[in-house]
Every structure is written in structure tokens, then in C-alpha cells.
Amino acid sequence: MTTARSILFVPGSRPDRYEKAAASAADLVVVDLEDAVGPDDKTTARASAFAWPGLPAAALRINAPGTDWYEADLAALTAAHASNRAPTAVLLPKADANTTEVTAASLPPGTALLPLIESARGIRDADATADCEGVVRLVFGSVDYAHDIAATPRPPAEDELLHARSTLVNASRAAGLAAPVDGVTLALDDEELTEREARRSRDLGFGGKLALHPRQLPGIHRAFLPTEAELAWARRALEAARTSNGGAIRLDGEIMDLPRLHQARRILAQADPPS
């Protein structure tokens, strides 16, 4: 899950879609017990999720702390762990440092925790949240965050949320976590927009993006692969370094220092998608 470029939500109340989601190209599937499930369907959705044989290979978004369903979700996770049926990871909505720490202490041992940062408090606590035990990756809930701060993001750049995104990238790097996962693209049928937003996420330092529908996956995957121009530059940079005999390296009128060479190696490494 630390290398997942695409994380696809499937409503917990739609068990008929579980296998379809698992058979998609998504790097990680999340059965959603929170936003995608109405109050009257929470109990049934939870039962369906934990009855699914594919859950141990998927992740689960539980309900937020303080809701009527949070404790029951945790209890179901503990019971599933005892019978080796627990999900591979848990997404915690409305996460901040305190709720992340409390939830991590309540999860079964070895459960990977992905805090979903979607509030001003969550962004404020990003460094502390990233340092919490059990946290493996931060996830940006961009839609809820924009609502919380009364912002109006304008795709595809969404510069209104730039501070929040950069905060999560920096917090992840400082804590030694994998690059964070960016929020969803709401336009389900605009593959070009999805890819443009995902490429901007990559340019900012994100390592993946949330998806609401399988048709968004190809654009996300393309965006997190280097372009042909980037690959060509990286190959030429490393070839120039190889033939420099330890001297100064000049490429396209620019001095190539160690950070640029590291960038070239990273680009080439990104050419192979995660298995």
C-alpha cells in the first residue's frame, strides 16, 4: 500500500461491487463504511464488508471517531483479526494527531493505518500525525478540507489547496513515510482532467491518488509514470555523469549537481509501476 498509485473506493453497502473493484486495475481497494454509506445501512454494510473473502487483501475506511459507529467498527476489526480475516489497512477519516494516536492504540497489532487528513485541524497536526505509531501513509481528503476552510478549489491546479498539499508532502518526508496520496477527482467521466490533476499531484510530491470509479484508474496510472521526455532527460543525465570522469557535469546548458542526478535515478526507477 505504500507504493499504491491508485486507491479505489467501493461502497460498503454495495457488496455486489466488491469483486468488480478487486478485479479492476486499482493498486488498492478500500471498502468504504463512511461517506458512501447512509446511517440506516451502516450495520449491514459492516457485516457485508467483514463477510467478504477479499477483505484481507483490501483496506477498510471506518467511521470517524465520535460517531455512533466508530466503536463497533473497531470491535469488528478486532474480531476479524482473531480469525485472520482483517483488512490489510485501515483508513481513518477526519484524522488529527489525537484521533490517530487513539485509533492506532485500539487497532489489532500490525494493522497499517492511513490517516485521512481532511480538516484544518488535521493539516495543523500533520507532522504529529505522521509520527504516530502504526501510520504508514498520509491521505488527503481534499473535498472535505476545502469545505472545512470554506475554499473553492478550481481544477486542475486547485492552487487554493496548495498549502495543505505541500504540508502533507513535507510531513510525510520528514517522518520517513511513503509519499502521500492525493484526493479524488469528482468528475467521473473526464479522464483527461483526472490525469491532469494526478500529474500535478505527482509534480507536488504525492505518490498516489484516490479514485471514485474504475474509469479514473488509467489516467491516474499514466500520470504517475514518467513522460518520454523525462525518461530521455534522465538517461542523458546519467550518461553525462558516467562519462565525466568525476568532473563537472553540464547538460543542456545547466550544471548537473548531485540532487539533479538523484532526480534522474528516481525518474528511471518510477518507470516500473509497483507490483
Automatic annotation (TrEMBL):
Q: Which SUPFAM superfamilies match?
A: Phosphoenolpyruvate/pyruvate domain
The protein's UniProt keywords, in alphabetical order, are: Lyase, Magnesium, Metal-binding
Question: Record's superkingdom?
Answer: Bacteria
Q: Where in the numbering of this chain does the HpcH/HpaI aldolase/citrate lyase domain appear? A: 5-214
GO MF term (any one): lyase activity
- Return the InterPro entries for the record: Aldolase/citrate-lyase_domain (IPR005000), Citrate_lyase_beta/mcl1/mcl2 (IPR011206), Pyrv/PenolPyrv_kinase-like_dom (IPR015813), Pyrv_kinase-like_dom_sf (IPR040442)
Q: PANTHER family, alphabetically?
A: CITRATE LYASE SUBUNIT BETA, LYASE BETA SUBUNIT, PUTATIVE (AFU_ORTHOLOGUE AFUA_4G13030)-RELATED
- The entry's protein name is CoA ester lyase
Origin species, per record, is: Streptomyces olivaceus
